[in-house]
Design goal:
nine-stranded antiparallel sheet, eight-stranded antiparallel beta barrel, elongated, Cyclophilin
Length: 377
């Protein structure tokens, strides 16, 4: 497994078959006033070997019967997701409506909008390349397209009300699934699919309607009008305002020093704690007490979370130059909910311990800095 390791104060890229030694030690990279280029190189090196965490993007489809939240599958259908968001971001889906509903099959929209008592065809962008990969099971969202033209999808999409994989996966190159309904969204989909339908001619032979008697003019209130937009959740991003002493009030005499380096994308953590068992009564130490333990960890952060590798150092002497041995022993996942609270999740194989520690600031001096840095990001 590839990773970042520290040996004799130097940074290495490490994998079983190869180690590439960087020519600057970690202290120089982080704390010296050397060139900005060196620091940028260090950040790039670390980001290349440590994991990056991403969250799925979501879109909300508001309807008169409730909201449908969908999770976009960018890894499976990146071009199709980009195509769909292009319509969303450019307002093409404004006042669009569900124009087709087939019982226990699909509901379909994206092709038409309704304004001033008239249905309009939504202008389309160029067709997107077919990216069939994910099966058309219940709750998946896929693109509609022309018969016998796999690469003809533009603006129309549909939600699979049932498992349609046997049918839709095996025709026209397979229908590209680019999202899935999450939460209780399928309750809304089922409610739409249960509406009566009207043959209004043209592309509206299976038009779902709400409280329509069958005579008179069709109004917007009779249609399943949709409002579609991407959900942009405010994300807490770790910043230098978190540089502080942190602790769990339940564990007396223990705590953490945390330092965030935004330009490097790095987090350093020092954990002052105790051994897993009390030392013998006759155990002695020249400095401190035998049961004291100090762990350090380093890693990259993404948003409000960081994955750090725990380093165990040994062989050093107080205030003396000496050869220090370091080994990697597990991981810490550091997560902050806001500027004042966080969580340390640890996994230490050598002692077979896993757990979670809620942390808070020892003092609130840096909280205001943290809040101000959030506002400027």
């Amino acid at each position: 497994m590839k990773g970042l390791y520290l040996f004799d104060g130097l940074v290495y890229f490490a994998c079983p078959e190869n180690r590439i030694k960087l020519q600057e030690d970690l202290n120089m990279l982080l704390f010296s006033k050397n060139s900005r280029l060196v620091k940028q190189f260090a950040a790039l090196a670390l980001i290349m070997v440590l994991p990056v965490m991403t969250e799925a993007r979501t879109v909300l489809i508001e309807t008169p019967l409730g909201d449908i939240e969908i999770e976009l599958l960018e890894d499976d259908a990146p071009k199709t997701v980009a195509n769909f968001l292009n319509y969303v971001d450019n307002g093409r889906y404004e006042k669009a409506f569900i124009h087709r509903s087939v019982t226990e099959f699909i509901i379909q929209g994206g092709g038409y909008s309704f304004s001033d008592g008239t249905a309009f065809e939504i202008p389309s962008f160029p067709a997107v390349e077919n990216e069939f990969k994910v099966s058309n099971t219940r709750g998946t969202v896929a693109m509609a397209k022309l018969n016998n033209q796999p690469d003809s999808a533009t603006n129309e999409w549909f939600i699979n009300v049932a498992d349609n994989s046997a049918n839709l996966d095996n025709q026209n190159g397979g229908f590209t699934v680019f999202a899935r309904v999450i939460g209780n969204g399928m309750d809304v989909v089922d409610a739409i699919n249960a509406l009566p339908t009207l043959n209004a001619g043209g592309p509206f032979t299976e038009l779902p309607v709400i409280n329509f008697s069958g005579s008179g003019d069709l109004l917007a209130e009779h249609l399943v009008i949709t409002n579609i937009f991407e959900i942009i959740e405010p994300v807490f991003v770790m910043n230098a305002g978190l540089n502080d002493a942190w602790f769990d009030p339940v564990t007396d005499g223990q705590g953490f020093f945390i330092t965030v380096f935004p330009e490097l994308g790095l987090v350093l953590l020092a954990w002052f704690t105790y051994d897993t068992e009390q030392p013998p009564m006759d155990a002695t130490a020249k400095l401190g007490v035998p049961g004291h333990r100090w762990l350090t960890a380093v890693g990259t952060f993404n948003g409000n979370s960081a994955v750090l590798e725990i380093e165990i150092a040994s062989g050093g002497l107080f205030d003396q130059p000496s050869m220090v041995d370091r080994v990697i022993d597990g991981t810490i996942t550091l997560t902050f909910e806001d500027c004042n609270t966080g969580t340390v999740d640890y996994d230490i194989p050598s002692i077979d311990r896993q757990g979670s520690v809620p942390i808070q600031r020892v003092a609130a001096d840096n909280a205001a800095l943290c809040e101000s840095l959030l506002e400027t990001d």
